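Risk register update: the risk of archive-format incompatibility is retired. Evidence:
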Amino acid sequence: GLERTGVLSEVLQAVTDVKTDYTAVTARGDRKRGLVNILITVNIRNYDHLNKLVERVKRIPDIYTVRRIMQ
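Archived output:
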């Protein structure tokens, strides 16, 4: 997403809004490009829960991409 004040806070609030626990958060800004990459490790109950979380985060202004990464 766009690097701006409060974007990390808004993403974490979205995670909380859909009653999701997170266990790790990493955010890295790229000032030259004006972007920030936020990686959050969350506990997901099922596919519906995952979809609700993704859709909620996508509604945040300046969020460009939301992806699921399996580890």
